[in-house]
Design brief:
alpha/beta, 8 helices, 9 strands
């Protein structure tokens, strides 16, 4: 069962051709994540390409929001074609930050976006003071299948960014799990309430959303005007 905010009807956007599609993975993940592969396969059946840059590059330990945004900009290059960004968790936050500075970004599909990153995420990890004192935090990296360190520079750099700086209206669809243990779904609901162009669908799932991929594809493809 899904809940939609605001209202209860999913509004379809107009399909624009040509359109590029970019998938932005989450923190301690990678371009070959389950959701990335799933959406790539689904779009491929429609003859569409989903580009998935590796946001860990050039080095996960020194990675920041700034380095990831630079990687996204590098991937988009100078091509003037409009782009739809699909973002998961931190990738969802990065999608909004990209839309703030790049007018080519014309639609956002966000899966459990890591809004309120500075306020909520380090606290939920329960390690902000330890991270600051040691200068790094160790975490399980699912793409590399090992524990890796991330420098405290991630936190210092994040202070320069705020998703609420988005002021231009563009179609945004957020899908969030009601049982999300990492990012509270109400953060997405609050983001949407301030912006009438944002739609939120809440699903019975956790932060990973891997068990509702089919539902997410149906929502995305309808919203994106792909069928």
């Amino acid at each position: 069962m899904a809940r939609n905010y605001p209202g209860f009807s999913l509004q379809k956007t107009v399909m624009i051709k040509p359109m590029r599609y970019l998938y932005l993975h989450g923190l301690a993940s990678g371009p070959n994540s389950g959701k990335g592969r799933y959406f790539t396969a689904q779009l491929n059946t429609l003859g569409l390409e989903l580009v998935s840059p590796d946001l860990n590059l050039p080095n996960f330990r020194t990675m920041t929001l700034s380095s990831q945004l630079a990687r996204i900009h590098e991937t988009l290059g100078d091509d003037p074609q409009p782009v739809t960004l699909l973002g998961s968790s931190m990738g969802g936050l990065l999608a909004v930050l990209s839309a703030i500075v790049d007018p080519r970004v014309c639609r956002l599909f966000l899966m459990a976006p890591a809004f309120n990153f500075l306020q909520d995420w380090p606290t939920r990890m329960g390690a902000l003071e330890l991270w600051r004192d040691k200068g790094y935090l160790e975490m399980a990296h699912y793409a590399y299948n090992k524990v890796m360190a991330l420098d405290y520079a991630m936190i210092e750099d994040a202070r320069h960014y705020n998703e609420h700086s988005l002021v231009r209206a563009l179609p945004i669809l957020i899908v969030h799990g009601l049982e999300d243990e990492v990012v509270d779904a109400q953060v997405s609901v609050a983001f949407a309430k301030q912006r009438p162009y944002v739609q939120v669908t809440l699903l019975h799932s956790d932060h990973r959303l891997t068990d509702v991929q089919g539902q997410m594809w149906n929502l995305f493809s309808h919203w994106a005007g792909l069928h």
